[in-house]
TrEMBL record:
InterPro entries: Flag_FlgI
Official protein name in the record: Flagellar P-ring protein
Top-rank taxon: Bacteria
Signal sequence, start to end: 1-33
Keywords, in A-Z order: Bacterial flagellum, Cell projection, Cilium, Flagellum, Periplasm, Signal
Family to which this protein belongs: Belongs to the FlgI family.
Quaternary structure and interacting proteins, as annotated: The basal body constitutes a major portion of the flagellar organelle and consists of four rings (L,P,S, and M) mounted on a central rod.
Organism, as annotated: Kiloniella laminariae
Pfam families in UniProt: FlgI (PF02119)
Amino acid sequence: MSRLHHLSVLARTTALVCGLFACMAAISGEAAAQSRIKDITNFEGIRDNLLVGYGLVVGLNGTGDDIGDAVFTRESLIGVLQRLGVNARDDDLDTDNVAAVMVTANLPPFSRQGSRIDLTVSAIGTSKSLQGGTLLVTPLMGADGEVYAVGQGPIAINGFSAGGNAETITRGVPTVGRISNGAIVEREIDFDLKELQSVKIALKNPDLTTAQRIADAINQQLGGNSASSTDPSTVQVNVPDRYRGNTVAMLTDIELLPVRVDSPAKVVIDEKSGVIVIGNEVRISTVAIAQGNLTVKITETPQVSQPNAFSNTGNTEVVDRTQIEVDEDSDRRLAVLPSGVTLQEVVNGLNALGVGPRDMIAILQSIKAAGALQADIELL
């Protein structure tokens, strides 16, 4: 076999391998751009419910509320003791081992009686720490005023506070703690999911294109026109006959369907922390940018002036010496960002100007004011 033939075979093999890798990269990129329906939506009726309650924490090592200042703690403690048969109506009642707290929890969907949920306990009085405390029986109510769970148990905190007469050290937040599995569900929320005739799917990030893609993916899976997007945040699915009485099976079949998510062009700016998040679809028109700050630096260096040695005249004086430096950023140049640049090119262009996050915020707002930024700016 000739050397030329070997080279021809090698070239064809190399081209085949490169083409295979290119196809794999394209497939991988397409798959990476897709998300499951269950990850970008919420199904009707499958949701948490918020619970809240008021209670007392006991067993604190002198870090509880000041009974004299926290009237609600005093009255709550008296009420608890009286229900237990103890007469505590005494002006001399004084303890710093009790704290009034607010207790919050999330009731997961379809929680059954007897199941347990986690609690978050937060001090509302003058307590310095909840370390070592135990929450007394606390009813947890929903928005309708009904009691759905009852909590009790020892509190675990992540922070601590210690100090003396001259110094105090605090790490974390010692006035907030958690109780794992600290509440027992006493009331169930009635919702018969399997008997629904239609189900509404709510998008976590409303978008018309994404909603229509979800409806198309569901129709392709179920057949017919069972799903339709009613608005940017809602897709309504009519339960087909073969799923009647078994809506859960239908939701199981559609929640894993992959959908390519579309998002509007947006720039999110948090001016307090200087954080900037630029969406992938952000584009700008041709624009020229220059950035510079006038910096004036004044340095005071006082010097001591003394008379000559063995001199009978003259006094020691402090003479002011002031040095002023003016930096007009003359090395900063005008940069041109061409039309239709991508996110990476926008970032590279701004970094080329040598600007920090806070200057970038001003630049992006100025580009938007000039009408060259094809995106919305959201300020947090």
